[in-house]
Write a structure and sequence with these properties.
- It contains two helices and nine strands.
- With 219 residues, it is α+β, with helices and mostly antiparallel strands.
- It has three domains: 29 residues; 64 residues, Antifreeze-like/N-acetylneuraminic acid synthase C-terminal domain (Type Iii Antifreeze Protein Isoform Hplc 12); 87 residues.
- The strands form three sheets. The chain has a five-stranded antiparallel beta sheet with strand order 5-8-7-6-9.
- The longest helix is centred in the N-terminal third of the chain and has 32 residues.
- The chain is elongated and about 95 Å long.
């Protein structure tokens, strides 16, 4: 009697010639470096894209008004914000990093929301520019128009001579007071004038030869 011989089971090759369903450790080892390279390539592409965008962004961070502010307004942090803008050459601005230093300064004129701020639009906390001086003028009621208030703009005139002469073309009224005169016939004005004109205005006022004329606009 002859014993039956059993042949070993064979695995059918797959279409690509490899054994179907077979997973080898060598294939796993090859896939790990490929994944790592792919991750590095994606990260590098993102870095290059971000750097290119930054290089093409020529906008400058500057301080602008966050809302409408009036003339003589004392600035708060809520009045200001930083905006990145593309600016023409020669435009005067205040760098965005200086925003906090502007709090407490006063505006020289009314500024709508979104106005780009420049140093010339602002006074320090006392409201005076570097070339300004404050003078007190004691005037007869007829030497000034009725209804003057702080912030008004005036021309200061030396009334001597046949036609008089202009001492200061534009001065800002800082304060108005009638003093102790109950009839209001004497008017005390504090005015901001250019420093180089302060002596001439003071001399004319002391001699009683000063009057003021109101101008349009306010500061």
């Amino acid at each position: 009697m002859t014993a039956a011989t059993t042949s070993p089971a064979r695995t059918r090759p797959s279409a690509n010639g490899s054994a179907a369903g077979r997973f080898t450790p060598s294939a796993a080892r090859r896939s790990v470096p490929l994944v790592a390279v792919g991750v590095l390539l994606i990260a590098f592409a993102a870095l290059v894209t971000g750097s290119a965008f930054t290089a093409l962004d020529h906008r400058t961070p500057v301080v602008v008004t966050a809302r409408d502010v009036g003339a003589g307004h004392t600035l708060t942090a809520a009045d200001l914000r930083v905006a990145r803008l593309t600016l023409d050459t020669g435009v005067t601005t205040i760098a965005g990093g200086r925003l906090s230093t502007l709090v407490g300064q006063r505006t020289r004129a009314a500024l709508p929301a979104g106005s780009v701020l420049a140093a010339g639009q602002l006074d320090t906390g006392d409201g005076l520019g570097a070339d300004d001086a404050v003078l007190g003028l004691a005037l007869d009621a007829g030497a000034a128009p009725a209804g003057l208030t702080a912030g008004d703009l005036v021309t200061i005139i030396d009334t001597r001579g046949d036609s008089g002469s202009v001492l200061v073309a534009e001065a800002a009224v800082r304060a108005v007071d009638t003093g102790d005169d109950p009839r209001g016939e004497r008017l005390m004005l504090s005015v901001v004038v250019p420093r180089e004109r302060a002596a001439a205005v003071a001399a004319a006022a002391a001699a009683g030869h000063v009057s003021v004329a109101r101008l349009p606009g306010r500061r």
